[in-house]
Amino acid sequence: MVAAGMVAFATSCTDLDVPVKSQYTHYPNSKIAIEAKMAGIYNQLRDMLGRRYYEAMSLSSDEQTAVSYSGGWIDAGAYSHPSLHNFTYEDNTIDWMTVLGEGCVKANEVITSNADDKYKTPARAMRAYFEFIMMDCWGDAPIIDPTVEGIDIRDRQPRADVARYIEKELLDIIPRLSTEVGGENYGKPNKYMAQALLAKLYINWAVYTAASVDQYDAATAVNEKLDACISVCDELINSGKFNLGSMPYRFKFGPNNSALNVEDFIYAMPYDTYTAQGMQYGRANSYKDIKSLNPSYYGMKLSNSGGAYMTMTPEFANLFSLPGDERNNCVIGGQVYVYDPTTLLPTSQLAKDRAGNPLFLTKSITLRYTDAAHTTLDWKNLDVGDDLEGWRQGYRSVKFFVIDDDYKNGRNQSNDLPIFRYADILLTKAEALVRKGTAGATAQALFNQIRAYVHAPLLTHVPTLQDIYEERGREFMNENWRRNDMIRFGHFEDEFFPHYRSNPNANFEKTRRIFPLYYKILNLNPSWKQNPGYPQSKA
After folding, report:
1. What CATH number does the domain containing 114 carry?
2. Rounded distance, CA 228 to CA 215, Å?
3. Which long-range contacts (C-beta less than 8 Å, at least 24 apart) are formed by 366-373?
4. What GO cellular component entries does it have (predicted)?
5. 99-122 per-position pLDDT tens digit
């Protein structure tokens, strides 16, 4: 029955465009062959996380906004639409959705085979992670597990049911997953990866189990899983396997960070400019004309230009103002200085633009006018102009620091991307305690662990939810959690550039908390309905 179900899923035109490349009834007995199969599962999301997923998560939040340059980077609105919450089912920034279904299929090949449990269990952890992303981003999602009775793996299931399925899977496999970290286990799912995923599921439980995405109200929602969330956070904390790290904040995300044994990383996606490509955060963030700068603000001349189509919103930039906060160095704005690529700190050397003038980036973003009379700003395409004045609009992130040894190779960086961090577990437990109303000194101490290691002012009171929300923005910038946080804390419909109510192109419907289903998925699954608030796909 399992094999039959898999064949039906793979050949039925309702398969998320995912062919099953092999249908083993007996798994290869070669260790090399098995581990190669597992590597394919672990790395399934590498390209997606390295660019498109990041674009969708960050641009739809207040973290970053799209800009275009007199026609450059408009790309049919693929980048401006997320910033305006005006997504369409054809936007390239959500073209990664089919990758998740394919990942579940790859995992099922192992799970339903005769492979050893040491392979099946981490495959189940990865399948749960794929399901989590589908549920988080789509709402209702297929449960692509042929062992679950009473469902068709080709159909979308209610979001709350998917959440309960993920919880059940994780609770079942956590005791059987490896407790080894680092070394050859780096980048592979283990017990702690699954626990961190479970903590994410629990802290968002009220979001995922709401009657519909638009009916979640952060002010009144009751989360029945707060005690469970605190418990799983405690297990991670008490494991003794992780800490905030012996290194400064900036080095955790710098070039070749895999060599540093970052104790804060519970689970990360490894990248290498030659052997594990796909990380292109520098391309999106770097100053448009950075190839002309000698040196660039990264402390060296770069061989490739910057894309610069993602820049920081003024509202988010305001978070980086705590005195002494080391995280401030991950943001450049105002007068820009050349960084030392060894220390990853700014020097006293001024960065200069192609005209030889000091490079100055403005926090506010000034759009071009669409008419000769200068009466209407380009709120649709977010055009800032393709010149020195346009290029300096908005502060920029240098958190995932760029070096030319990587960037010259198709702009592929060797900065590993953390997916789950110990710092997140500390703030998640603090948040759960505050939401319970039993925070006290414990939540304050957890919060101040974060402040202390980045040398920011310690909080002198029990943190509020707003304190935690803002701190999460500072701590996890560019790590793909801001959209998730904004929805949970009730800020996704806030005003932030260019998502202003005065902008006729901005959308404030609560249905935009999830993305539209990408058109290719709908075309391949004719029984599926587009998410509420979005038009149906063309045939």
Report:
1. 1.25.40.390
2. 24
3. 366/393, 367/498, 368/70
4. cell outer membrane
5. 999 999 999 999 999 999 999 999
**Domain-located, residue 246:** no
Q: Is residue 144 part of a domain?
A: yes
C-alpha 207/C-alpha 484 separation (Å) is 10
Q: Tens digit of pLDDT for each residue in 302-318?
A: 999 999 999 999 999 99
Q: Is residue 503 assigned to a domain?
A: no
Residue-wise pLDDT tens digits, 134-176: 999 999 999 999 999 999 999 999 999 999 999 999 999 999 9
Which residues, other chains included, contact 113 with Cβ-Cβ below 8 Å and sequence gap of 6+? 24, 25, 26, 27, 120
What is the per-residue pLDDT across 330-345, written as a single tens digit (0 to 9) for each?
A: 999 999 999 999 999 9
- Which of 257, 320, 278, 279 is CA-nearest to residue 476? 320
pTM over 0.85: yes
For 91, the token pair is 């936007």
Owning domain of residue 27: 2-218+515-522
How many domains does the chain contain in total? Answer: 1
Locate all alpha helices (DSSP H) within 252-393, ordered by sequence. 281-285, 314-317, 388-391
**Cis peptide before 498, with omega less than 30 degrees from 0?**
yes
